Amino acid sequence: MSHSHLPVDDSSLGRSELRRRTAVRRRAVVLLSWILAPLAALTLVGMLLLWPGDSSSSPIAGNPYTAAPGAAILTGTVQRTSTENCPGSAQKSQSCFIAHTSVQGGGEVPVVVTPDIVQTRGVKVGEGIRYLKLPAMPAGLEAMGPQFVFMDFVRTVPLGLLAVLYAVVVIAVARWRGLRAMVGLGGAFAVLAWFILPALAQGKPPLLVAVVGSSAIMFGVLYFAHGFSARTSTALLGTLFGLAATAGLAAWAVDAAALTGSTGDNAYQLLNLTQGMSLSGMILCGLIISGLGVLNDVTITQSSAVWELYELAPQTSALTLFRSAMRIGRDHIASTVYTIAFAYAGSALPVLLLVSLYDRPLLDALTSSELAEEVVRILVGSIGLVLAIPVTTAVAVAVVKATGKQEAAAPALAN
């Protein structure tokens, strides 16, 4: 085929090249479907077998703050704040920070704000808060504590504004693909809320729940956000490999590192509500799910890199194409490993700060129950990520070269 750069020929060659590339991609999709279709079927069968049963069999925790008869959780707007004697306190000289909060029908109630909130941020006039209203003491009995106690802030407006801003920015920059990615993210959270969490609560095997649920998320998110194409299918195959590697390594690491999951504030409450659910199994599930986003990122990028390199130089040998793509992959590995480490370090910053204040050797601190889970999360996620890149690259090279051979045997479409 002539590669003349005359303006008259460019348009014709462009249409021919577009048809050629479309044909190559269609053949690649068919080739990959022979591998991915059985995996999709296994994922669907796994979800059906592991699907949580009747919701009535799931443990349900009532609101612990409303256990007392007559207690209720209410919301209101702070009208004014002051430091004054604690209402209902036996020690009249004890001072409390009071947020005088409006109630329905008019009037105010003195809400006692806990010292930790006062020290970290405080409560400001005009803010919405949630507070616990305890039942009033019977006549003739002296109150032993405040009747209105601060619980939390009402964050509906700022979180809603952030969500709207996020949607606007994503759609403005990525347009239709950004919108599809956001819808796919909603579907991923639906799988998490309606399948993974209820299945764990009902005692389903955590490893299987995590692998099946994560696979379903990746099938939906990748195809919905990026469309049905050879690049997407290649990235999905690499993602599933990385997911399998992460799951196997996480299963070993949780047992070998003796991660019990009993160090968190909610551990014993979960044990009581779920009648002895394995907290280490919950950690295992979390290790697998936490790396999905970064894993998806590197595989789709690596697949696209291989495809672009091939389309720029179709005659490149498979080995040269693999080496070129891996040079891109190594740069991606270096930057993404930092991303994983800093993301987990940021989320565990309070624990890191607390451990740093203890007078103990660094190795003891890193291997302590407080930090061991985060260390394992970083290492397991990074290993699965690194292994997925060469596998995705090799699969992408094999697909483009296989379709290229078919095209060499059949001449390109006529201009």
TrEMBL record:
* Highest rank taxon of the organism: Bacteria
Task: Establish whether keyword Cell membrane is in the entry.
Answer: no
Q: Name one Pfam family in it.
A: YibE_F
Keywords for this entry? Membrane, Transmembrane, Transmembrane helix
- Protein name according to UniProt: YibE/F family protein
Instruction: Kindly give the InterPro entries that the UniProt entry links to this protein.
Output: YibE_F (IPR012507)
KW Membrane (keyword) present:
yes
Give the PANTHER family listed for this entry. MEMBRANE PROTEIN (PTHR41771:SF1), MEMBRANE PROTEIN-RELATED (PTHR41771)
Instruction: Name the residues that span the membrane.
Output: 28-51, 153-174, 181-201, 207-228, 235-254, 274-295, 333-358, 378-400
Q: What is the scientific name of the source organism?
A: Arthrobacter cryoconiti
